[in-house]
Amino acid sequence: GIWEYSKIVQLGSRHGFGFAVREGLRQVSTPFVLVLQHDRVFMRAFDLLGAIKALALEKSVNYILLQNTSTLGYLKKLGDLLNKGKHKVEIPSQVQQLTVADVALTPLVQWLDSTHICKTEWYRSFVFNPARKLVSRGGFIEDKFGQAQIADIRSRGFQRVYEWGCWLLDDKQERCVGHVNGRRAISAAQKQAMIDFCRSNPSESLQSNAELRWQAAMEVKESLKEHIYIKRSISSVTSLQPKVDEKTAVVEKGTSS
Q: Which of 22, 36, 204, 227 has its CA at a distance of 20 to 30 angstroms from the CA of residue 235?
């Protein structure tokens, strides 16, 4: 089945996202790794095999981020991201992009923790290099690594973006991953249907309310377009499963999945 090659690593204490990823990497024996957060889902299909080929073929590509809401129209956002306060970075009129294995890549000026694919050894030796101290216990990778990256580009110029090797899978202007909390994963009509259901089934118990919300979600899920996308993208991922030695889920103490 889909979880045949899965393994859960339960941590004995709170590590935070960054160190939890580091712990998960110790279980990985493949040259590439996909990091999927517990509150993220695939919203559409994407070329996973093409992204892996890009990582394998292009030395300057270390990390590929999948499209999310904040990265749509990314090139137009570069000025706002880099030129804050006293910072003035000259951005080329034509930003150098890459096309590798038929996959379009746009350079990222700042690491984001959202769902991404990465070279396993680069993750271990560069991102988690103890001498660099770019990830803190209890924190996110983007909190320190991402800030160090964008600070370097601001101080030394835009061309530094290519030295970091972080890229966006710029396949289409449509988010590839989204949150499962319902704020953006369902339409306004579907959200209203859930609200109406809960209002018509009042309860004084928080637990009962939670059950009602779940029941409402189940009633409307058949109409979720994203539900179809999720199925498609799972097929894309599992088609590579025979070649994958290990997929790891990391569960922190005190959290639920």
A: 22
